[in-house]
Amino acid sequence: MLSAKKIIKCLDDHWPVLETLVSRSTLGSFSFQDVQALIQRNSPSLSSEQVFREAQRLLQHEVLIPLAKSSQLELNRAVLEFIQFLTQEHQLGTVGDIQSRIEDLDRLRGKLKAAADTKDVSEMRRFIRLMDERVREVVKHFRKNESAIMHLVEKAKADDAKLSLAKRYSAVMEAFDEYIEPVLQMIDINAPFQYSMQALEHQLSELILNIEQTGFLQSEKEPLVQLRTRLLDMNQIGREALIRSTDVLMPLREELRKNTLISRNASALLAHLRKKGLEPTLEQLVPKFSSDHQKFSLGSANQITSYMAELVDYQDEAYQMPEQVDPGDNANIRVPDLAEVLKSARTQKANTDLSKWLAKSYPQLPVDELLFLYQELSRAPTLKLQHLEQYSTLEVNGYRLTLHPFVPTATSGT
Length: 414
Fold this sequence. Notes:
Layout: H1 4-13, H2 15-25, H3 32-42, H4 48-60, E1 64-66, E2 73-75, H5 77-87, H6 95-117, H7 121-158, H8 165-168, H9 170-186, H10 192-214, H11 221-276, H12 278-282, H13 292-295, H14 301-312, H15 338-345, H16 354-361, H17 367-379, E3 385-387, E4 392-396, E5 399-403, E6 406-408
Antiparallel strand pairs: 1-2, 3-6, 4-5
């Protein structure tokens, strides 16, 4: 059996090497020679034989493990997670990791109730301990994912500026689409998550109250109080972590949105150039610095001589215009000013669905721009809105949107 003390000593002796291997673990496996090279780099005073023994030591203590049917190596998963926890360089998890533990809490809640009804003390203790572990795991996932998002944002900002924004921010956008939005739906006030948390908190409070009134199972009161407190903290920690993650992701998402709008307009302009040509397109944009009389008048002798000299060396250049991209409407996409949209929204009737009003008022607006306006208006303090529980489905430019609609309250003015 491996000695925990020796493993800790091994990690301490080769910590710089292991930190480097953790960063490489995202790129794939590595060879035994790679490990030797890293040890030699961090400990140049060691001989070749000593370097080999130190690398072999990492294998003997199972800090490094060989891949199946291969001479390549990888970090032991437990060691990898331990180092990532200490260095705060986590990999972003999924909402399923959190959801599965919430479902397990629901299952354990029923078992705890059955054990309490039958006065089975040992089973109650076991289920309280299991539920406490699940709550701790959920908190760990919230914090780990927040740290992973912060790392993704820092990496995206530090990436090569020559890359397009879409490529630099691809991992950031995936984090928003695959983690932030699903978690927002999960912890929504009308979602099953909140019902589960409220039911569990209510059950724990009832058990604590029953113990206080009857005096039975007095020894189990403290674990129940601790579990209820940790449950409330979990809910708060999750929301705060989500707010901080959203705050760092939204500016990058907004930057990419603006860049996408510029790219769309540029594509529309290039398509127009390809169809109409350069001169007709730019005819209205070129400023006129001469009168009509000057256009048709001859220049001086020196001007004509210079012009003829330039014609001698003239060579026609062939330009390869880009392929036509169907832009829909050739006119540039014009996003309405937020202040104007807000002013117009204040005049709507009390029963008007905000999303349907936006889709009807701005039918040519792209879906992402429409959602941006919807989000900004829903947060506007000057609009007194209420969030309806039922879902509303909306068709916009070929996309189907399912939203909890915002409508003005009955007390808001028209």
